[in-house]
Amino acid sequence: MFDNLSYKLDRAFKTLKGTGKITEINVATTVKEIRRALIDADVNYKVAKEVTDKIKEEALGRDVLIAVSPGQLLVKITQEELTQLMGGSKEEISIKGDPAVILISGLQGSGKTTFSGKLGAYLKKQGRQVLLVGCDVYRPAAVEQLKTLGSQIGIEVYAEPGNQNALQIAQNAIEFAKKSGKKTVIIDTAGRLAVDEAMMNEISSLKETLNPSETLFVVDSMTGQDAVNTAKTFDERLDFDGVVLTKLDGDSRGGAAISIRHVVNKPIKFISTGEKMENLDLFYPDRMAQRILG
Ligand code: GDP
Questions:
Q1: Atom number of ligand 1 nearest to Cα 279
Q2: Could you tell me which of 166, 167, 255 has the C-alpha nearest to residue 219?
Q3: ipTM of model
Q4: Where does GTP bind (predicted)?
Q5: Ligand 1 centroid to 273 CA: how many Å?
Q6: Is the Cβ–Cβ distance between 249 and 257 less than 8 Å?
Q7: Cα dist. 227→34, 134, 173, 217, 223 in Å?
Q8: CB of 273 sitting under 6 A from ligand 1
Q9: Does 78 belong to an annotated binding site?
Q10: Residue scoring higher pLDDT (178 or 63)
Q11: Whether residue 68 has pLDDT greater than 80
Q12: Are 78 and 197 in contact (CB under 8 A)?
């Protein structure tokens, strides 16, 4: 997914090739190229400017070691700054309570249901007893999809077909989990094609009433700047704990991955890289920065 960005960054660093030292002039040229590459990859303009200003400041402030060329130094600084921009270090989800409730939010089509299954499989592998809950009362197919995933990964799915009250379903599911000894409850909620008031009210009331241990916001990385804007809107209403970036296997330009943490100030916790249940990874900012730099 970062092929284009990696190529452009590499080309930017090459503008320093052959120069013996870092100067105000040659750094300015390279940094401008880096900024352009980031903006082309759909990174928010302000974020791109901030990070490249930092790269420039760092580069001018550091003595170039004899063994390191200006190009190598700039690659290293860029990697450090991108890592910081994406949150610095890995952040885990919180699984507390009996049962621990994990609420999954996001727009329709973002990959919520698929991710709910993946998270269930991931936690089951850690030895947890998981219950998946289908709370998408508007899209019956979503519940069917969750049931199919559940039987594929060997996890029970709680649903109440016909019941239009998501909160009631979730509360009943929690009671069911207590009775059946399931310690972790993953609630897949309804999504709409765009943010709307009814959806926001529903998910906010689920969060307020259920007091989840973790609320995750799932977003399609292919939607670029829109992903960042939707994240902002959801966070204002939901104050979620973490972000799940999906479809990173697609031809997204990567801008969402780079900007979202900085703009929303919430950590990315998982990345999804395909439709299969095993296509789930924890998010490591340093590894992602390395991938971006090719
Ligand atoms: P929901 O409406 O938010 O529950 O979204 P779904 O889980 O139904 O996903 C929408 C579509 O995206 C489905 O066809 C999924 O198979 C697909 N999908 C989900 N995650 C990924 C991913 O990481 N990569 C790819 N390529 N497709 C994905």
A1: 23
A2: 255
A3: 0.99
A4: 106-113, 188-192, 246-249
A5: 10
A6: no
A7: 22, 24, 30, 11, 5
A8: yes
A9: no
A10: 178
A11: no
A12: no
Residue 64 has pLDDT above 70, yes or no: no
CA-proximal residue: ligand 1, atom 19 (nearest): 111
Q: Determine if residue 30 is labeled as part of a ligand binding site.
A: no
Closest CA to 110 of 247, 276, 255, 254: 247
Q: How far is the CA of 277 from the centre of ligand 1 (A)?
A: 11
Contact 157, 180 (CB under 8 A): no
Q: In this structure, are residues 64 and 70 in contact, taking their beta carbons and an 8 Å threshold?
A: yes
106 lines ligand 1 (CB under 6 A): yes
Nearest CA to ligand 1 atom 16: 275
Is 184 annotated as ligand-binding? no
Please compute Rg for the chain using Cα positions.
Answer: 21
pLDDT level of residue 66 (50, 70, 90 thresholds): low
Whether the Cβ atoms of residue 120 and residue 156 lie closer than 8 Å to each other = no
The torsion of the CA quartet 227, 130, 215, 143, rounded to 10 degrees, works out to 50
Transcribe the chain into DSSP letters: --HHHHHHHHHHHHTTTT--S--HHHHHHHHHHHHHHHHHTT--HHHHHHHHHHHHHHHHHSPPPTTS-HHHHHHHHHHHHHHHHTTSS--PPP--BTTEEEEEEE-TTSSHHHHHHHHHHHHHHTT--EEEEEE--S-HHHHHHHHHHHHHHT-EEE--TT---HHHHHHHHHHHHHHHT--EEEEEE---SS--HHHHHHHHHHHHHH--SEEEEEEEGGGTHHHHHHHHHHHHHH--SEEEEE-TTSS--SHHHHHHHHHH---EEEEE-SSSTT-EEE--HHHHHHHHT-
Q: Whose alpha carbon is nearest atom 6 of ligand 1?
A: 111
38 known ligand binder: no
